## 1
Amino acid sequence: MTVTSIVPVSVANISASQMSSNEIASTQIAGAAPNAIFDTLLDHLQNVNTQLVNTDKAVQQLASGETDNLHQVMISMEQTRLAFDLVLQVRNKVMDAYQEIMRMQV
Amino acid sequence: MSMFRVLDISSAGLSVEQARLEAASSNLANANTTRSASGAMYQPVTVVVGSQVVERALGMIQKPVVVDVVPTNAEPRMVYEPGHPDANEKGFVTKPGVDTLSTMMDLMSISRSYEANLRVFDITRTLLQKTLEVGSRS
Amino acid sequence: MGSLNASVVESISRELDVCAMKHEAYSANIANANVAGYERVEVSSSANTAQLSAPAAQLLHTHDAVKLDQEMAKLSSNAVRYEMLLTAYQQTAGILNLAIKEGRGA
């Protein structure tokens, strides 16, 4: 039986017009992966910041006697703390990963 | 804050029951007097209790409030005691119109209400403390 | 990241709102039990599922007088439910905290 030879595929063989726009986009994103992580982190940090601001407002209302729900304030304080903790830990991990990569001998 | 309002409502209830207690015990203590220091007879009193809307509460929440302590204007009792210094010519002594039996029943209901309000106060305090402990870890 | 347990916390928080309202209603009923002509108030049962955006609307005026023992029993069981909800929240938050700290504790 005959073995059909495998034609090696190289990027040069594929013309740009044959690529769909999705494939182009994905290669671009793949090339920009590290920045995406930092952007996501920043995004989540923004969320946590918003939570912190809201919790602050709630505590102020509590102090001035306007609020009805003590349990709401306590729960949102705890939630904010957890969210902040989470972002902090993720940030630590990302930094560790980054430093490890930087330490790699080229 | 609604929990703090509950403390306020319960303590209002306690105050009202205390006022009723004072009135009832005063009536009972003076049930057999015939004259006071000024010469007039003891007038049994009753407590008028009204409801007051609690501010900043959910619309219809009210707390009890002592509106007034007024004389009952009950008819004095005539008791047959011929040897009594204050007896009239027929031997009857005029005593304050206090119905001791129903006043004793009142005391029982006052006591129950007082205890109930006290328990509510206690429970509210516990709930508040538990709420404050949210988020603290051992 | 918002909160990883956001949906659970949302429903616990709503139930706590209902419990707090009920507690206030029962307490007022008990305090006003001996006021002549007082009619007891209660929180409508649809408050359990509806958004509590209009808390005043959830309070119903019944045409019954207050029965002290019954009111006390309702208040007690509602208080236990309140504590149960608080505990449920603390457990959820505790597990999340454990996950964030990777089991290394507080």
Note: The two ends of chain C are 21 Å apart (CA to CA).
## 2
Amino acid sequence: MKFEVHLQSPVGGARTRVVELERTGSVYRVKIDGEAVAADAVQVSPNTVSVLLGGQAFEVHVTPSLNGTIKLQSGPHEFVAELRDPRAWEGRRHGAAELEGRQQIVAPMPGKVIRVLVRAGDSVEAGQGLVVVEAMKMQNEIRSPKTGKVERLQVREGQAVNAGELLCVVS
Amino acid sequence: MFKKILIANRGEIAVRVLRACREMGIRTVGVFSEVDRNALHVRLADEAYPIGPAASRESYLRIDKLLDVATKAGCDALHPGYGFLAENPALPRACEDTGITFIGPPAEAMEAMGSKTAGKQLARRSDVPTVPGTDDPIEKPEEAQSLARTMGYPILLKAIAGGGGKGMRVVPNDAAFPAAWRDAASEAMNAFGDPRVFLEKYLIGPRHIEIQVFADAHGRVVSLGERECSIQRRHQKVIEEAPSPVVTPDLRRRMGEAAVRLTRAGGYVNAGTVEFLVDAELNFYFLEVNTRLQVEHPVTEQVTGLDLVKLQIAIAAGHRLPFAWESITPRGHAMEVRLYAEDPDNNFFPSPGHILSRHAPTGPGIRLDEGVYEGYTVPMEYDPLLSKLIAWGNSREETIARLRRALDEYTITGIRTNVSLFRRILGEPEFLRGEIHTKWLDELLTRPRPPAVAPREGTEEAAVIAAALWHIEQAGRSSLAHPESQVSSRWKLHGRHEQVDRTP
């Protein structure tokens, strides 16, 4: 799979890197900005990836955040990243990347579902609001990452949800 | 010895007390508020009972509910931990009425030593040096100002009912006195409903050094040496160490003797801490007594080899202090950092929430006292202390190196922590030389932050690869979690993987 990764860090500023991961057997072949790199990447726990880059060892912790970006931490260093799948560019709306296949929409942080904007079976556009989750006194609209159909709705209004809890499935 | 102890607290200290009880073969009873059902102390206790809503005044501060649980569960003793009711004399009184032993000082000793002014009067009577100033509140501002002139500026104004820096003002010179007096009195009125203020000589750049004392019910009082707690952010300790980098054996003996005199004069029993301010000439002045176990007690445990919670329990059960000495010599060096769920990049704003993943440091010279675990949601209702990371070694240098190593190993995702603050402090040359005082950290935080160190080559590439891999695996897990695509048997799944993944 090929991704455009928009990175932001205090030291490096903003930049875009293109990364390709191709699975061969149990390992991935990795290209960065079109060039093959000797990388061995393993997800050692749900949010932690160990990367050996030409023998240099790195550990990267991945945390999804509310606005769709992900935080990457390696030791004291932090990056904020946004992932885009270049193949889905034409279909994207509202500046967000559109994802393919069945998508599970999960709560990005603990909170309370205060509004459900769709019903199971509804057709939705990419970027359309699905559920509003209130967390730490802020209302966050969770949007559909793709154009498709709401296959399942897992929550109802008033329900408390934990981070990572399934809200709905869009296929 | 006791058969069953009620632990009237939550979080890491409840876990700490529970562990001591378990080692002593005593059964433990935990209590929890509505938001604490998943807390670690509830999971580890032998028994646990709900005591009401999240707000602590309706749960952890309700003496009636605590004693009701203690009675029904058949407890013969109660440990208050620190915070909440630990320094409220109403708790030991209620325990006495119910026939349950309170693991801590008697109510009278709490009253005689706990309040700032009572403690200071006791110190004067037991020949313990105090910061020059008035014991009693002064009513007339003119009278206070003329007293300030004779004492010499700078002067500190403090609220009688004070705490947490409220109603406190530093007066640099005579001209600033009237305004500072008005501000301190009105702030004290707002915060405590009591506008009374007293004067103290303001020490420039003092250290906060405290003595751990223990007294048994048979008249024996000992000092377990000092802890240096000068690294504070707005009067809150964030790093503590033992021994202090400046305390000499002679000073340790003199401070220990002063603390023991005071403790004895107050009729004190059990664990207590006598806090002192120490000036640049190593003169020490009594500050106040904490009539409970301190948050930072582990550093004393590491350099003395003693378990202070077990000692507390033994003393409450009427045992004698098992030592032949009046004071001790610390062995090696220990240092503790308080890891909080707060964001150092956003003015230390509390950052509770769900802990997605966590890796705890281990290895030589490392101890972690904590009340959290992976998957736990840190509630927003209480103090956001996550863990106390304690390192010890042969020297201060080795201890700091271990602490830095452990901080590098410690990872927690999903919430923000103040780990970066400690990385910064532990790299500051003044800190490494031990040249610290109670305002040092506040001053450090007003300085511009050192430029971020450029990450080692490859870090960015590794981060990008990790992001992509995580995304792919996440998508893979989503489809697996879906019933239609789920394989009924783990064996079948394994078989499929075997066929797909030729290279093991």
Note: The longest helix of chain B spans residues 459-481.
## 3
Amino acid sequence: MKPAPRFRGRRPVRRPPGLLLALGGLGLALFIVPFVGLLARTPWSDLPRLLSGEVATSALRLSLIASISSTGVALVLGVPLAWLLARVDFPGRALLRALVILPLVLPPVVGGAALLFAVGRRGLLGGPLEQATGLILPFSLGGVILATTFVSMPFLVITVEGALRSMDRRYEDAAATLGAGRWTVLRRVTLPLIAPSLAAGLLLTWARAFGEFGATVTFAGNLQGRTQTLPLAIFVALESDRDTAVAISLLMVVVSLLVLVTLRERWWKAL
Amino acid sequence: MVEGALNAGGLQARIVLQRSETFTLDVDLSIPPGRTAALLGPNGAGKSTAVAALAGLLPIDSGRVALGSGVLDDPREGRFVLPERRRVGVVFQDYFLFPHLSVMKNVCFGPRSRGVDRSASRARAGRWIRSLRLEGLEERRPGDLSGGQAQRVALARALATDPDLLLLDEPLSALDITTRTQLRRTLAEHLDGFRGPRLLITHDPTEAFLLADEIHIIEEGRITQTGSAEDIRLRPRSTYAADLGGTNLLRGTARGGEVDMGTHVLHIADHDLTGPVLLTLRPAAISVHLVHPEGSFRNTWLTRITRVETLGHRARLLTGAPLPLTVEVTREAREELGLVPGSEVWLALKATEIGVQPGISAKEPGRG
Amino acid sequence: MTTSNPRRAERSNAKSRLWLAAGIMAVATTCRAPDREPPPSGEPGQVTGELGGGILVSAAASLTDAFDDLATAFEASHRGVDVVLNLAGSSALREQILDGAPVDVFASADHANMDRVVESGAVSGGPWIFARNRLQIAVPRGNPSGVTGLSDLADSGRLIGLCAAAVPCGDFARRSLAKAGVTAALDTDEPDVRALLTKIELGELDAGITYVTDVLSAEGRVAGIEIPESENVVIDYPIARLAAAPNAEAASAFISFVRSEEGRVILERLGFVAP
């Protein structure tokens, strides 16, 4: 019948229930099978040549620059925004929070279109912007960063806002009674207390920015070396050069895995 | 701005603060320097609100909070000093030690926040760490401390800021009995050594009785009694206060040596008193008889026992109509007399044993 | 089923991407769907009896309006048949077919993509050229940057867009530029011609090269600048019935319709030229 449970330490170690194993295994397969398909289709012998080509290297460079910049912008603008949403009671706060979440719900292409209407050359703000400074955002790296920030910053705001709401504010009270002014409290008490959530938020933001496609192609266009990030390069290559597409896909998977696995360990150890 | 700690006067606070539709805190606290006052009351009485108001975490609606010669909060004059500018040291109930900082950094936090440089802060923190016998723990994180150690760190952290007023919000309630007893002594030492006024918030009467010079009983946002431990024990002015010492408290109307309680009449020694009175009947002063007692008792009546509680060598009997009371006898006596719930007994009480206080307190905390 | 709108909703990158994803995942090792019936050869046969069912027509993006109209007209005279249009870049459509998508009819915007499909043995009827197209420079209404010819596309001060090189529209555009000896100062390679047209219409781009039919279809929202014969390229549109067509009969009927006089009228109205 069932094997007797072994004892390790204090708790008996038993095999997980069969049904759980089966369903969990199926769930696992859902994630693994596509990667297996990708690996099977990879032109291994050609890989070095494909990955060192112009298309792959410039796409990788642009993707890294754009995703890291987006994460940076999200940090600088998102944390204050999260603080306002969590701590200040102002009229229309619920509406503002819904607006912040909107990019998560809308198809990215819609986001890209909205950006065009707002800051495109003929856009509401873009026109005056071009007149005043000569700056044109679409079809530029700046446009890529704007598009990816638009779709990924909500992750940071939501995560940090949640953390600020759920932290015990009496730590901040204690700090105040000890003589800390508001900036000191923020710097030495609040932010360190929400650091794990902040780190998780930054990671999610980067991941989303790294994989962004719809808003980027709609707003910033697609030009190798200037705006063609890895997802765009894959999309274009799929139609003409399957091998390159697969090679670049593999590259994206490897880079993503590297970042997610190493950073997760380091930043979440405190938990 | 408040003056420095050493020549400061005491605390003069009149606090009126509405927390909700149904609860308003309205208290008057006056604590001279070098004295410890306790704010003793049940949960929800408003103790934490008082702490928050004194610390500046909540502004008062009306009244005035002054420490030494400086005013901290005065709505009428439009004065309010931010918590970080007050020199009020607070030890919170759950300590709230910063979990990401070491013990040393926690204790240094106050001085550093006030602009003291790193080495001076460390020196000051080090003195308190030694004073509270926390050597060796400087680099530990709060998560690795025992309850007693954490409490002492919290105290050190508050004292390191050299405050003018020390507030301790239920400082020992998170600890087990043994640690609590040990720490009570440490706390008493350091309270004595502190030159400013100190306010101890607690719901534990033993703590209040042992550590405070003066006790303020707070119920439902009001102070119902102020006095020493003895005062409270012997002359409680509310049911809660009475329960603290385990005394019976009853109300009635006095006239010519008799007090009409509604359901019963008791004879008291004072024949001149007239009007509403509060009577205190010590449980140990009431004797229990199986037959109608003879003797000099002016008060005897028949009643039934509703409950029996044994506490060591004593037994506390709760009796029902006509006068619900707590009566205390020895365990042996209870056994000998065979007293159980339902037993019919005669109670006897000398008129001279009944404590009488004229007047009724502002609100009526009814017996449940 | 009588308006063209449901079909418009189906067209666009979303659907073709879905096909693409499904196709790649399930067919990563290049299995092919088995042939459903023995491949008939030669001309599409006579329509025999009542036609029914649905046909899936994969057509190049630049054929959007044309095939909308053709499908509507065909369904009007063949009530039992439901024409479903799958519109995307010709190369994307080619890949779907090679991956085994169950397509009945393929209409490509160039020979190259159709040839690849033919080479793989996936074609059972055709291919036949059913229309021709030419290139035109598309500019926003009012021509704000004053483009007059292909040489203006070399101006780096203007924002210039082309279709991606892998898409026929992009391929032909580059050939035309080469013919004219112009190196375009390119700012974006749009994945398909509709995306390019939208950006020009919005004024985000100053100029791009699209088909004549695309400029016409924009109904005045986009203006066209002629490209002279010497620099222009003729584009042939081949159409074919696929061997794996689930509904070969209806497929043949549809192709016949497209090549008929009635079909020709519809195409010419939209700016296509008779083959």
Note: Chains C and B do not touch (no CB pair under 8 Å).
